[in-house]
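Because discrete structure vocabularies remain unfamiliar, we first show an illustrative case, written as a sequence plus integers encoding its fold.
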Amino acid sequence: MTDYSANKVFDLTGKIALVTGGSRGLGREMVRAFAQAGADVVIASRKIAQCEELAEEIRGMGRRAFPYACNVGDWDQVEGMVNAAYDHFGRLDVLVNNAGLSPLYPSLNDVDEALFDKVFDVNLKGPFRAMAMVGARMAAGDGGSIINVSSTASVIPNKTTAPYGAAKRALNHMTTTFAMEYGPKVRVNCIIPGPFETDISVGWFHSEAFQERARTRIPLMRGGQPNEIVGAALYFASDASSFSTSTTLRVDGGAY
């Protein structure tokens, strides 16, 4: 009889996972969850000290961890990150494009070219290059799983997140494109998080304006906690989602 226990279905023993934006927020929780499920991890973000700190924690779990500094908005740095991961571990089984950027601006007319390009570089160009490189190698090998982390801004237009939402909308689109390109051996799926309490959102998460919006527009009447992204990440990373590709999964408390 097939073993449907959670430990078996979501098992990542022997897998290698790379998580961008992996040193804090949602990425950090995914790294911890993957390690606890048996995976070794590449922790990538701009700040190497934070990556190294989390890597030490992961090694304390008995897993291998490779911290790597990378600005995913830079094409060459993304290529360097992927090549370094393969040089270090020999392969990747899971890629999570989690790094993101959504700067504040006073009005749409105040969005200059530099800000616009920076938002698209981090949220779209970097994931594109990472998916292309890793997907091709996965498809030529034993396959794997790619997970894109989008945002409800991609499906709920808002003037305060226009460039960011547009870039994430394109990432949703690319999820399907890459699923078609690298299937059947590579599955490509997308998580669409709603508002989560992370160090990035601390400025507005506890504001009365957000709390009122949560009470009136989110069925669960609250924002999410970082650990609440873990179920979706483990589902897509593991064989639990073996027949899921080109899928977008909202983890937003019902906000959309």
The chain has one domain: 6-251.
